[in-house]
Amino acid sequence: MSSATPHSTRPKQTSFVSYVSPTPTSPWGTYLSQVDRVVPYLGHLGKWAETLKRPKRALIVDVPIEMDDGTVQHYEGFRVQHNLSRGPGKGGVRYHPDVTLEEVMALSAWMTVKCAAVNLPYGGAKGGIRVDPKQLSMKELEKLTRRYTSEIGIIIGPQRDIPAPDVNTNGQIMAWMMDTYSMNTGATATGVVTGKPIHLGGSLGRVKATGRGVFVTGREAARRLGLKLDGATVAVQGFGNVGGSAAELFAQAGSKIVAAQDHTGTIFNAAGLDLAELMPHVKQVGGVGGFKGAEALEPEAFWDVKCDILIPAALEGVISAARAKRVTAKLVLEGANGPTVPEADDILAERGVLVVPDVICNAGGVTVSYFEWVQDFSSFFWSEDEINVRLDKIMVDALKKIWDTADRHQITLRTATFAVACERILIAREERGLYP
Questions:
Q1: How far is it, in rounded angstroms, from Cα 352 to Cα 227?
Q2: In angstroms, rounded to a whole number, what is the distance separating the alpha carbons of residues 206 and 204?
Q3: Considering its fold, how many domains does the chain have in total?
Q4: Which secondary-structure segment (H or E) carries 100?
Q5: Structure pTM?
Q6: For labelling, which of 157, 184, 268, 317 has a CA lying 20 to 30 Å from the CA of 347?
Q7: CB 67 within 8 A of CB 141
Q8: Catalytic pick from 90, 114, 126, 256?
Q9: pLDDT digit string (tens) for 13-57?
Q10: Residue 340 carries which DSSP code?
């Protein structure tokens, strides 16, 4: 009988991640750096750390549809399940022309960490289609959604993987996904997606849940800093469901929203933007650009705006090292996924800027998605007040545990969040064991 191959001569472990070429500032590269930083705090669980660096499953699908003009166009779609040790996959679906496999891998991994950070019984997943949905008619958008759902139907399901809205997707997209999956399985399955319209099993409070989570964690962080929200100045990048909802809640607490930026423009008003006028403008024209109650700025000038609180709530990687040196805020609340690259993280920490990381700050959305999933199974629905009370408690309790971990180890909130979450993930991995 031949002896086992010595460790030193074993071939290097490979997986499909070998086909991705991450850079330090790319989404997957950023995530890998975050995992490396947390390994020293995992104790004996560190032996399982490689699990965190390898998505469990990735599906790449061709999505052909017949356009309104009779031509056939092909779009590339993805669904990645990063880790399912703690439960079924959970994560949104985004429609964007820059969607890539690497990006979806990173987003699915952050979902794994996020769900564990707030102790939800989910693993992490994410999906996307490389498409500009603004170039499609409603009929074409429906065809795209239904075909994509049929293609990924082999790995999703109420107990397997539950999609949700993300960038450029909404309740209508989720309704089409739910209906398509249900038609293909022969029974209505409301729990296959969350973020659905209320009358199709959606939950009250879901649309503004992520923004509410940003506010709740921001309120707790401001209290720790001794920063009063009444009179505090806030700059928000991304003014959709997340940034817009967070801005409204901060304004209700007495804060002044002095700057806002999205794909339509950058606006500034030192006295505070009038949200009673701005929100209808955003709804009517699709963004903050052109708002008459503010001064228009060049996009890059947004990072020089003087403010107490900065909320990046758009896309990943926007806070580069160069921009981190210019941030004037005392507190950064990551409403977006992965908005700060690792080098920028270090610069902000050195400058004494407190960053509440995405994997706890924007976890309000997935938390209320969990509430929706539970309500769908029981066919018993809660009031919006009940939803908000439950959400606030989960977010506050989760942040307290993370802060205690940060204080104990003298580490950043991001590393502390990963430490708490990855410990939960890897305990589940270890206790389940390997099969076969």
A1: 14
A2: 6
A3: 2
A4: none
A5: 0.92
A6: 268
A7: no
A8: 126
A9: 555 566 677 888 899 999 999 999 999 999 999 999 999 999 999
A10: B
Structural domain includes residue 259: yes
Give the model confidence (pLDDT) of 82-138 as tens digits.
999 999 999 999 999 999 999 999 999 999 999 999 999 999 999 999 999 999 999
Query: Is residue 325 annotated as part of the catalytic site, yes or no?
Result: no
Q: 396 in a domain, yes or no?
A: no
> Domain span at residue 243?
209-361
Task: Specify the CATH number for the domain of residue 177.
Answer: 3.40.50.10860
Residue 169 main-chain phi, psi, to 5 deg: -125, 160
What confidence score (pLDDT) does residue 17 get?
A: 66
Alpha carbons 414 and 411: distance in angstroms, whole number: 8
Buried b vs exposed e over 397-435: b needs ≥16 C-beta within 10 Å? ebbebbbebbeeeebbbbbbbbbbbbbbbbbbbeeeeee
**Are 232 and 289 within one domain?**
yes
Task: Say whether both 232 and 156 belong to one domain.
Answer: no
- Predicted pLDDT at 1: 45
In this structure, the strands spanning 331-333 and 354-356 are parallel
Burial 104-137 (b: 16+ CB within 10 A, else e): bbbbbbbbbbbbbbbbbebbbbbbbbbbebeebe
**Of 30, 33, 29, the residue nearest 17 (C-alpha):** 29
Residues 245 and 177 both lie in one domain: no
